[in-house]
Amino acid sequence: MGQCGITSSKTVLVFLNLIFWAAAGILCYIGAYVFITYDDYDHFFEDVYTLIPAVVIIAVGTLLFIIGLIGCCATIRESSCGLATFAAILLLVFVTECVVVVLGYIYRAKVEDEVNHSIQKVYNEYSGTNTDAPSRAIDYVQRQLHCCGIHNYSDWKNTHWFKESKNNSVPVSCCQPNISNCTGTLTRPADLYQEGCEALVVKKLKEIMMYVIWAALTFASIQMLGMLCACVVLCRRSHDPAYELLVTTNSYA
């Protein structure tokens, strides 16, 4: 009966190691996605520490590759030392992912304040040229999120660019794609996106942070199962002399 229990736990461990390798790739992908997406919106927040959860989750993903290798070797060789090391590293990663979840919630709550603090400054720096980073960022956001201005298109009237251009128009990135010959003129407001960008940028950044949080929670649960199986194998092996004798005999065979 004990032998069957150990064999079942070992089978689960091997399966979990395969999941860890898959999880490593997924976590690295999510972390990279967060970096790339935040790069498109980095003008709208100044706190670089917001990216800490993404950095940690990439590090965890890399570590999971190593964990999977250690776990497979320890399970196949039936090494007590290897299984103990495997369980200890899993515990460390589990704690790290719990920290990622906490940091994710903390920085998710700070996103709105960061955007509110920065967005007016970015719009005031708009110059309308592709060589200017704030201008590219605003045009990109307005096209991608289908928005115009901070709260609506009328916010452009308060920007330096609008006052200097004196053409009673907003950038063409405010134009709805189904409208032909749209020049951004305020005399035809129906041609423009009606929703402001501030709320949509906040929503987008919060969604990205939730991807990190849910990924960390999901794989933390899997790692908890891995630790449990490793502990079961170790405990039953230490309390089952017949199994220890069988392993020793097989090792010498």
Oligomeric status: single chain
- Count all strands and give the number: 0
The 3D shape can be described as elongated
What is the mean predicted local confidence, pLDDT?
Answer: 78
| Count of alpha/pi helices | 7
The CATH homologous superfamily of the domain at 107-220 is termed Tetraspanin
Kindly provide the radius of gyration, computed on alpha-carbon positions and rounded to a whole number of angstroms. 27 Å
SSE string, helix = H, strand = E? HHHHHHH
Alpha-carbon distance between the termini? Answer: 24 Å
What's the level 1 CATH class of the domain at 107-220?
A: Mainly Alpha
β-strand amount: under 5%
Helical content, roughly?
over 70%
Main beta sheet, described? none
Question: Which features characterize this protein?
Answer:
253 residues; Cd81 Antigen, Extracellular Domain, Chain: A; disordered C terminus
Structure description:
It is a multi-pass membrane protein. With 253 residues, the protein is mostly helical. It has a domain at 107-220: Cd81 Antigen, Extracellular Domain, Chain: A (Orthogonal Bundle), CATH 1.10.1450. Helix content is 73%, strand content 0%. The chain is built from 7 helices and no strands. The longest helix has 45 residues, at 80-124. It is elongated. The two termini are 24 Å apart.
